[in-house]
Amino acid sequence: MIYLDNAATGGSKPHSVRSAVAAAMKVCANPGRSGHRLSLAHAEHVLACRKLLSDVFDGYGYERTVFTKSCTEALNLAILGVLGQGDHVVATTLEHNSVLRPLHALAEKGVITYDIVPLTDGKLEPSTIAAHVKHKTRLVCVTAASNVTGVSCDLKEVRKLLPEHVLLLVDGAQGAGHIPIRMKETGIDMLALAGHKGLHAIQTGVLLFSERVDPRPLLFGGTGSESLSLAMPNFYPDRLESGTLSYPAICSLFEGLLIVKAGHKNDLYAVTERLGEEVGAIGAYEIFSPPNHAGIFSFRHKSMSSEEVAGILSERFDIAVRGGLHCAPLAHRAIGTLPDGLVRASFSVFQGMREANALIHALRAI
Description:
This protein is an alpha/beta fold. It is 37% helix and 16% strand.
């Protein structure tokens, strides 16, 4: 199979990642929860992964690097753990439901209000984002790269235009591993990551955050520290990490980060540019992704539904893509692709023109 659904979950994992998971599964102690040699060794490796994450993303130290089961959980922790009564939030029309649904839930309860920033010629303009900020704005949420179109936003410019008191949350699910994201350099207060996409790991998530935020825990339970107290520890990362960590996932993320840090890249901008030209020339398709570094190419057939096209690609050509709304309804509403959504082909850095040409051939045949 030609796997082009990497924006959902990365397909083929590098050898070092697979080996790390296999090794962790052979002897998988609970990191740091016991005093024996194996538990302590695993805890050291977890700490090394925190430090590497903070290094790669220019974060605020290993203490403020928290593991979650997914990017969705990381975004919920950032939103539900920081916002309070009367806060105002600015989010964009390109945000995933992992941002929109917690905001909606808080608004339904009367805790917050929020505004959605529209697109300008299909793009997010930093000046438009800043124009939606109000006196009570506590948080601005911006995706590093749209999971629908691959469109990115100038995060540095966004931060520069925001008042000092406003926090900046970046959804790095699609951008991380594809585009540089530097927290301190850019002024990002919270960064949510999906380890299993551009970071080459198995399913896991991470939240990195600055000294300007003090997230409240969403989960309560064992941490291996201050066990006599019925209250959660008041220090990070323990305060936000109840329960057993997924050691195999953390081992995989460590190896994936080493690949990212080493600078392994493929020119996905050129891949998506070629796809736009070739598929656009067929005449039966509309293209919705500009050339982008996230490796996302979204389109629709002029007379067939997106899910039907995705089904044909899978059944007849053994090409895995995703059809539908991609959990980002406001993005589809903004670009006029409701109710059927789009077909999304998404590439990893280990793919290139060979896979693109196979997709072009199949779409010509369809």
